[in-house]
């Protein structure tokens, strides 16, 4: 058992923790230098030394640890992890019962009471993300909970923290019987190929499940669809299954082509009828403009930051420009699916970017639908940054 470090909270931050903010930030603590070993249990105390909360020390880009409990008597032991994880699983009953969906998140960090830890379920496999060395020190407890829950195929893990040159298991395998990848998971009846042994990006982003369903069920039929920043083409697959006339997927990463071919193929779609282009999206916009190409639907899902040879893109700065480029290649009455996972701004500001882009293009629009994180990505109402996903389905009306 590690020793407890008392972290003295600055007076102007005390309210924050009393109001159940889960993230422990460096600037809120007067004595961060007393933190030595990641994974140590910390007690947050006010200026007079009275207990506020307890948590663990773990360095993440977001902070220096997470609150685990506001109850002084609650022990942080195996039972603590067991209760939190079982509680989370109880909330996902409908996902377990849904035969058409076999991939979903069963534990979502601070949304389920333990920041820095997420667990995804992929058809009998678990994939754990550890976001700091601190949370990784609780690995044995977390694995034991999964063991006690019943049979599974295997556990994989992603250490999403700097391992300082230490040996990192080449294929992320923890225990069980190694999978043969790709495994094919189902999502609302669609198939997706998933690799749990190949780094943090496994082939599909589960948080876009509802958007893929909407594209398939309501927007794709008879459309020419452009999917930008397409990665493995998950949105293109949804569009094709929804009856799109043709999809065009554009991503700059070379691996995206074979991965997209694979996603089409596992769904019985002839990839040769689709366009899969390895190119910088910004070059593609120029190309499309030159050729006067127009699409009925354009999907925009850029990373928060991206650097290619020619461009540095930051959603917070460049989204209006991206929308403008998109407007010029979208048909009248066409649909733009605008998405961002940037946690540094909320929906209101995102809508402002859309407004700015359309205004500067002198074009009118109508927001048809809005999406945020799906139910399995539980969020913590005291931590808005955790509610990062924003998706708008927009109709270009002039
Ligand atoms: N929309 C995808 C996920 C996108 S992940 C999905 O739903 O699965 C972000 C992708 O953007 C990565 O695959 C990355 O290779 C790609 N990317 C980043 N910068 C790019 C650029 N300038 N042009 C094209 N693709 C880019």
TrEMBL record:
The keyword Methyltransferase applies. It comes from the Bacteria. The keyword rRNA processing does not apply. Keywords: Methyltransferase, S-adenosyl-L-methionine, Transferase. Residues 9-69 form the RlmI-like PUA domain. Residues 170-377 form the S-adenosylmethionine-dependent methyltransferase domain. GO terms for biological process: methylation. Pfam families: Methyltrans_SAM (PF10672), PUA_3 (PF17785). One of its GO terms (molecular function) is methyltransferase activity. This is Class I SAM-dependent rRNA methyltransferase.
């Amino acid at each position: 058992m590690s020793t407890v470090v008392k972290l003295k909270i600055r007076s102007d931050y005390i309210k924050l923790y009393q109001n159940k903010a889960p993230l422990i930030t460096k600037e809120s603590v007067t004595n961060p230098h007393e933190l030595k070993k990641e994974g140590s249990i910390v007690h947050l105390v006010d200026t007079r030394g009275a207990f506020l909360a307890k948590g663990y020390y773990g360095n993440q880009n977001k902070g220096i640890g997470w609150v685990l409990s506001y109850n002084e008597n609650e022990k942080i032991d195996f039972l603590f992890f067991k209760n939190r994880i079982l509680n989370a699983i109880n909330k996902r009953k409908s996902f377990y019962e849904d035969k058409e969906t076999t991939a979903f998140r069963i534990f979502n960090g601070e949304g389920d009471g333990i920041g820095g830890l997420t667990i995804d379920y992929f058809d009998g496999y678990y994939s754990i993300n550890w976001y700091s060395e601190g949370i990784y020190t609780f690995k044995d407890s977390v694995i034991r909970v999964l063991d006690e829950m019943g049979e599974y195929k295997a556990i994989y893990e992603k250490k999403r923290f700097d391992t300082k040159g230490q040996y990192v298991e080449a294929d992320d395998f923890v225990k069980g019987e190694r999978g043969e990848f790709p495994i094919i998971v189902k999502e609302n009846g669609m198939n997706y190929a998933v690799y749990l042994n190949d780094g943090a990006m496994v082939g599909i982003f589960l948080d876009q499940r509802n958007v893929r369903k909407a594209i398939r069920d309501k927007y794709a039929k008879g459309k020419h669809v452009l999917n930008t920043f397409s990665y493995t083409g998950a949105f293109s697959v949804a569009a094709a299954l929804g009856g799109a006339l043709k999809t065009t997927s554009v991503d700059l990463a070379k691996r995206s082509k074979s991965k997209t071919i694979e996603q089409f193929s596992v769904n019985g779609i002839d990839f040769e009828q689709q366009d899969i282009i390895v190119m910088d999206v910004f070059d593609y916009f120029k190309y499309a403009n030159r050729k006067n190409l127009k699409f009925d639907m354009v999907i925009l899902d850029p990373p928060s930051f991206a650097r290619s040879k020619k461009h540095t893109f930051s959603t917070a700065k460049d989204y209006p420009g991206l929308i403008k480029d998109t407007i010029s290649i979208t048909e009248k009455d066409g649909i733009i699916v605008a998405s961002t996972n940037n946690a540094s701004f909320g929906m209101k500001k995102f809508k402002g970017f859309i407004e700015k882009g359309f205004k500067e293009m002198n074009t009118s629009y109508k927001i048809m639908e809005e999406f945020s994180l799906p139910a399995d990505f539980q969020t913590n109402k005291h931590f808005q940054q955790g509610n990062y996903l924003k998706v708008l389905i927009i109709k270009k009306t002039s």
